[in-house]
Design goal:
The complex is a heterodimer of chains A (about 270) and B (about 325). Chain A is an all-alpha fold and about 270 residues long. Chain A is built from 11 helices and no strands. The two termini of chain A are about 20 Å apart.
Chain lengths: ~270, ~325
Amino acid sequence: MLRLRGRPWPWGALGWGLLLGLCLLPGVLPGLLAPLAGGEAPVPERPLWVLTLQHLGLVLFAQGLVLLLAVPLVIYATRPGRRAVLGLLGALAGLGQTVPTLAILALAVPLLGFGVAPTLLGLVLYGLAPVVSNGIAGLRGVDPDVLDAARGMGLSAQQRLWRVELPLALPVWWAGVRTSLVFGVATATVGAALGAGGLGSPIIGGLSQQNPALVLLGALPAALLALTLDALLAATLPPRADGRPKSKYIQDKPLASRSSPQAPSGPFSH
Amino acid sequence: MNAPPPPALDLEHLSKRYGDAYAVRDLTLRLPAGRLTALLGPSGCGKTTTLRMLNRLIEPTSGRVLLGGQDTRTLPPEVLRRGMGYVIQRVGLFPHLSVGRNVATVPELLGWPPARIKARVDELLALVGLEPGLYRDKRPAELSGGQAQRVGVARALAADPPVLLMDEPFGALDPIAREGLQEEMLTLQRRLAKTVVLVTHDIPEALRLADHIALLRGGELVQFGTPDDLVRRPATDFAARFMGEGAALEQLGGVRAAELARPGDATGLPTVPASASARTALATMLRLETLALAVVDGERVLGVLEFRDLASGPPPAPQDPRC
């Protein structure tokens, strides 16, 4: 999926990534944050880089599950003659996003107990919404004339899907994956309250000890991780399919805000 | 190109019903092999539905279509469609693929070797008047409407299908681009002699391009005949009204002055270029108040065109356009 040929270097991803790396060097971030805690450097329960990898692993695993679920579901629902399924799926995706993350996590605990499982469930449920709705928007947004031409030229349903529909839907769909992943990084911090570990644990610890330095020790790497992933996905966003000249770099923000109702917004867009 | 001779299309008692309403009703019609037949009629007359039943984008409620004598239902729809070029008004080029890859679509589906596909793409782009080196790698979004439809035609012709289906192919173009493309379509058809079905509501376009016209109304056939039949011998009041008083004049727009010219003494006559249409020649006669013109190609006199030659209409179409 890394399509960097013919594009400028993804400076954003590189810059945020480097900054994140710097923060994870032993002692760097605690040293910087020490003044906030009265000169005493905050100490995480495990090394920061371990927490970050834990966090990233959790988010990526959840995202993998999201894609495994969403891609076949969306393709199934957008085939002709499945209007009812499509409506239902769209409504569920919308609903999924209106339920607060914390509520999903809290409801999952009685079912799954504490630990990684309820967090994963929350991440998957919450992450499905942008991927599903952008997938539907992307596939439904394919020009009907293009599909008619494809059908009239003798492309089978499968050939139309692979050669025409998916390539044309990919930019919008990819924007949904980007949103989902970035929100996932934030959502996963809440999981620490359920004992899922990750960068949320210093935040939770800091909150209970009323230690802002400890909160920032988790929050800053989490934010940098989100920014890095966001920039990385923006850089690998497939080119707009409507045939802008290849040389023109695709500006991520107008594209995301135009083509997708689920574009990343707020602190994660730049 | 040594393609086998194109097949005729036979429509037998073809009907399409939506609920209680017939879009097409008991249509029996032979679309002659190697000729361009226009399906002409007002909006909602069933012409597009008819066209889409030919390549089974719409399945008929009853009746059948024979392609060169073979029932089209005996073929898988995809196979049937790959043998019928398909051109639509809004072109529908694949926006994510280059012009060249768009044209290559059907040959790719048919599994042609890459070298043959590449050669064919260049040949076709040249055929529709687009310099291959210049256009092959462009994106559809970089093309004008006329250029896009040229690519659309090239894409439809890519695998050299014996049949070409066109649904108002020039309807969305500005008048100049439209006339240019119509002119090239005529030249192309003289060369390729495919079985072409052209859906249009544009009477001048039908008169200009078609060897035969099927006039439809309310899903039923009103008249099938040559353009000359429809202009001079309308079968019904509707046909006469639909073709209108201007039809005879429009018909002359599709004929070159040179085609009507006869040998004769051209001394002292005003001239008209051979490439001009008979309609232009008539306008010249009216303007100069003369009953005869010399048809010239540069300095060379090709013949004399008299007013009564215009009135008697165009000569009958040659029996075999692939001479």
